Amino acid sequence: MINSIIYGILASIFxxxxxxxxxxxxxxxxxxxxxxAYGSLGVKLFFLGIFTVVIKxxxxxxIVYATIILMSIIYxxxxxFLALTKK
Length: 87
Hints:
Blueprint: H1 2-28, H2 33-54, H3 62-85
């Protein structure tokens, strides 16, 4: 179970870093803000797919892993939405 928590937190950290980078870039380049949001979503989904396939044998409790990933996705989407709508 510890492996599931650690891998979930590692993936979540990467998702948050991509989101923060996307928001910083969208503030600098305001015309392509929504494109960056959708692009970062694609990068996050691609990373999560590859990361999960690579560590598939190491995950002991998939429910814990999926819950941590889901919480980070909800946080990232809410943060992106709020940051891009605030001016």
